[in-house]
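Practice problem: predict the structure.
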Amino acid sequence: MKHIISACFFLFSLCMSAQSVTVTVDQNVTLKEFFKQIESQTDFKFAFTDQIDTNKKYFTQKNTYKNIEMSKLISELNQTSIVQFSITGNNIFVKQKAQTQKPTKKKSKLTGRIFDDERQPVIGANVFIKELETGVVTDVNGNYSIDVPNGNYTIQVSYVGFKNEEKRVSVTDDNRVNFNIDPDSQQLGEVIVMNNKAVDIKTTQMSVNKLSMQEIKKIPVAMGEPDPLKSILTLPGVTNAGEASSGFNVRGGAADQNLILLDGAPVYADSHMFGFFSIFNADIVNGLDLYKGGIPSKFGGRVSSVLDVTQQTGDFEEYKVNGGIGIISSRLLVQGPLQKEKGSFILSGRASYAHLFMKLADNNNSAMFYDLNAKLNYRFNAKNTLSFSGYFGNDIFDINDRFASTYGSTMGILSWKHKFSDRLNSNLSTFYSDYRFNLEIPIESFKWDSNIASYGLKYNWNFQQSEKFKINYGVDGLYYNFNPGVVKPTSPDSQFNYMQLDKKYALEASAFVDFENQITEKLNFRYGLRYSMFYRLGDETISTYENGQAVVYNPLYKIYEEGTPNGSISYGKGKTINKFNNFEPRAALSYAFNDESSIKASYNRMAQYIHILSNTQSPLPMSIWTPSGPFTKPQLLDQYAMGYFRNFKDGDYSLETELFYKNVQNRIDYIDGADILANNNIEQVILNGKARSYGMELLFRKNTGVFTGWVSYTLSRAEQKTPGRTPEEPGIANGDWYLSGYDKLHNLSIVGSYELNPKWSFNGNFTLQSGQPVTYANGYYEMGGIHIPNYSLRNENRLPLFHHLDVAATYTPKPDKKKGWQSYWVFSLYNIYNRKNAASMSFTTNEDTGANETRRLSIFGIVPGVSYNFKF
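Answer:
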């Protein structure tokens, strides 16, 4: 009888264990929730010991089991969960695994690099391991790294606009798996264009706009040349002084308040031909990041923004050539391996040839520019890479042999990247960068040469303690040599004598640490601190003034005048003239409501120790950089920002909204009638004031489909205030807040791209901005028969509304051709409805009628452009 009962019980157990169920488990499923799934589909009941907490999450992997027998399900779960299941009759017993039963699978490091069809590293590609339901995103060098248990996995790489790539790998030790991904060109039927511009909801980084070269080359610009710098003017919070003007203004800041980096090295000028072209060659630029706020601690030295431009890495396997021929300039790029899989090079050059057409037209004027870019890379092994980036550019002007000018920049940076371990890597770099300006006026028989040169060293480390906690830290130093100018007579009868303006020297050093901490699945926090020091150094003689005031107020005429030196102090070479230091805290926080929306907030303090001396809204080539010192204090910024971010329809659409407030201490202001050219005592025309700006930014993007683009709008105010130093002094504009020259109340940009078919695509860009603040004459008085204008308060007026519409069409004759000679044409019309935007307004007297009149100066009307582009 006992044997019969045992046999029945055994058969009953077999029948129970043969029942099939469908369940899903993952890292977020509690044991109680798992029990409910089983008990709702079967007759099983669960029993467990006191050590088992049913509200705890015991599962380590995500899996869905469909119509699986209970015995097989229990076997599968026992391999991956951290508790032990066993079936006895219609009961499932649950107990803690013995120490020896805990999973002992060894973990290995899976690393690699993702390349696109041009053999360029892909930044932000998704690397996903299907079996583990987890993944990572590639870094700025296209690298990924993830810890996985040993086993067999399917790795999927995806990047919007490219085909997904999959590889099956067996992980038994540290593995390196590289991927090459191809563009997703759905040529038959509907053409789908996708840009990887969905908002990263969870990251703390805000106030950052990124543009790829694919987007930059689609934005129509004057002269038909793709221009990375002009493209950022379509982003919220970014403006400039108008057409054909150099520099750019971010959130109401001046052009000299922007830190411009090319592969990590600073550059001090950003344009060719007085602003018609930027110094960045679109062929070699890989992409750009514009930081407007929430700036990480690794950046410093400017108080408005950071424009981080990176150049492409040359192809490690094949030689390639591409270029373009335009109506104003042409360009050529060559790249290829120095040693396959180890070393690569990329060289690019541009040159304009407008001066040739002038000579053919018997025009003695000449205007041209050229530049060269280079980047070399060599991988010694998996842990050590050496790279060099360089830039050299020059502009040459010659106006009827009466005026000649050359100016340009040189930059070189050598970097060594070393990987200490899977968690720690470093980047050591040293660089040189200069900007020079030379002017010659033969009729006056003199030359003027000036320049700024800097030498720098950076050493940065990145440590990843875990996927939820990262530390970036480093040190850097920068030595400056400022040459405000040397005047040289060019003939014996010149009325000018040789004069060397006082050279200035300075040392800027800093250290920073930055923490990235994922506190919960929804809450992320980044916080850091930068400590900066600045030393103004000799050899230099500093003038002294009564009461220490280089600018004096004349109460009789109610004007500020240059003070008269009453002595001087000489500082020997390397002696400290002034010393400044500042703590610069940074913080950013993000809270994700779900996978589609989040709010973010940030604060950053920044210090700026060097300044451009220019009382124009747009920096001119002869603008002079000068260091902080006895009469010029460092600028200090406090910026606060918060915003709401959302993706719609799985990233097809995205919305970014931000509010910001900026406060800048020690902003340079100039007295009326200030003469800054070749002024050896510049402190005599400078007052220290303050500035503020605040506003709202909106950016709405359509990221996928045959029609893509974005709409950006900024509503903002930028003001400056320079009160009097005593109750008797009025300051500037009566000591009240007045509009800065960079104020644009409204700023709207609409950018669109339409892919008609594989051969034709069309692009458009509409810009509308409030007119630039200016100071108009509000009357005149007559003295000796001469009309002398009387001016209103500073920047009390505005230029007329600024707007234009630009369109372009791209024609690719053979879109399916992927080898050999490939080409496309770009046809563009800038300012299609011929708007005569005012660059300035002047008030004069008509020589014939004697009547007062206003004249508008416009730079561009409608400007056609065409370029032929090729690669092979």
